[in-house]
Structure prediction request, 188 residues.
Amino acid sequence: MKIEPYILPGLFLIAPRRFGDDRGFFAETWSRRVLAGAGIDVDFVQDNHSLSRRTGTVRGLHFQSPPHAQAKLVRCGRGRLLDVAVDLRRGSPTFGKWAGAELSGENGLQLFIPAGFGHGFVTREPDTEIVYKCSDYYAPDCDGGIRWNDPDIGVDWGISEASGISDKDAGAPLLADFDTPFIWEDGK
Prediction:
């Protein structure tokens, strides 16, 4: 498994080794020991799986606030998507900056997103599935988001028009109106 820091402090791009033959492939997508050895010491407690039927479907930018903030390990099970993380940690030198990685069923890449980041994605193919591990359970009272098309963040989603924007995502606050509960601590 290849694990590398990715663009913003705290993000890691992970490339699991794939062993393939004419039947398909096998890959170890998560190992507590391997990730801890790379400095990602997270106890995942919940797995989520989402299907988006249409190309151009945008979901996000979501987070859970403390005391139920979530780190995520994200991968694409089928199809192709642009996965996006936005730094929401007050005092971070990259506060309000975003990074994106193309994840697909074919490339097998994963993105580790620590707590304190907003997370979203846009599908690049129909019937795209995203699968991700979370470090805390879903807590509706801690559920939040930042507007997916906030011009101050400027995510380049690579689409001319989004499809399937939920009312929740369309009505999320802009970063300028958001009092972040996340704090940049000790360079993390």
Q: What stands out?
A: DSSP finds two helices and 13 strands in the chain.
